[in-house]
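Sample intake sheet
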Amino acid sequence: MKRTAIYLRVSSDRQSQEGDSIAAQRQALTKYIDDRPDLVLAGEYIDDGISGTKYSQRDELQRMLADVEDGKIDLLIFTKLDRFFRSVRHYTAAQAILDKHGVGWTAIWEPIYDTTTPQGRLIVNQMMSIAQFEAENTGQRIKQVQAYKVTQCEVISGNTPYGYRIENKHLVPSEDAESVLLAFQTFERTGSINGSLRELAGVPGLPRIQKDFKKMLKNPIYIGKYRGNDHFCEPIIPLQLWERVQELLPINIRSNQRQTYIFSGLIRCGECGCSFAANTRRRQRGNYFQIIHQYRCPKHFMRKPAQCTNPKVMNENVLERYLIENLSSMIEKTVVEYEVAAKPARDKAARIAKLQGKADKLKELFINDLISLEEYKSDKEKLAAQIDALQAEAAEEPTVNTEALKQLQGMNFRGIYEGMEPDEKRRFWRAIIKVIHFDQERNIDVEFL
């Protein structure tokens, strides 16, 4: 009696509808065994909804090959060759295992295949090459169709990001869009994924796992971008809020209910650029211990051997005092530097406005039949190219919210700050500071938002 395993696979609903369903395959394969007294069913292996071009992802195929290696199978049967493999390379790898353990196979709906003779192996390899070509060609056609749909702003599947729904093949904001906006606003305010998840615990539908919540915050679909189409759908999140969230994500505050580190995620090593790690140290003061929050480069203190030359430790209270005492002068210096640096950007804006004015006049000349269509198109293309080039250069210019910094400079922020709780202090600094660089010479360099 030959111990016979049956292998079944279907990769799509279309295949099921065309007669290749799991039920149809099982019925044919079990009947094949029942009609042959020398065969006995040794196992059933089903990969449902997995492409034939996959190999390691087909868990049941891997389990079946493991049983072959354990000597549990003498014969393998399936309905058609493409149910087994659609790749010559993958087929060859699996066939080597079967040959090593003396296991043959049969495609019951395609009896032409016979792996016991050289001629049969030749036919199998030829058909596998054809099957691989068809699979790759089909995949290429699908990609082309999907790419075209994206250019037409049409969805390519029935799955929709949270906050959207499908209407006439297009994504439109759903009733959950306000929850998405709230999630972005909450993270911008807290700077912490854990903290945001706690605050949003009562909002239904939002992701509850850190990884999924972060994935949502990084998804450009919420500003209308998808696969190279910058206007794929109506945005839910304003661009300024999106950009701010992307700045905060790399310095996400790891929420700790016992300790609040005011500058967590803001300090970077001036030598290696690594984000400083926060820790707590206890210092004895008479009969009690003083708790001191510190920041240090993890590449120097936590790697053996050290991967950074910066051995300096920054005490939180020292940095806090330094920033409060020097904030006004640092803001003044930043505003002056930015206004000098922003002059070329203002010049570009003036040049763009002038070119746009020329484009408007050019259109008037064409409308009044003072220039030909060819002249209009030629001159318009030249002006458009110049405008695009200037806009691209202007987009690369640094931006700082100088008006907000000037308002802060004019406020009595010291008195306000002293009345803040640690969480409020942390939000305050993250609202105005992009990063603090601290090197081994103890130099402090602050970049404002």
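Comment: Confidence is low (pLDDT under 50) at residues 13-17. The radius of gyration is 33 Å.
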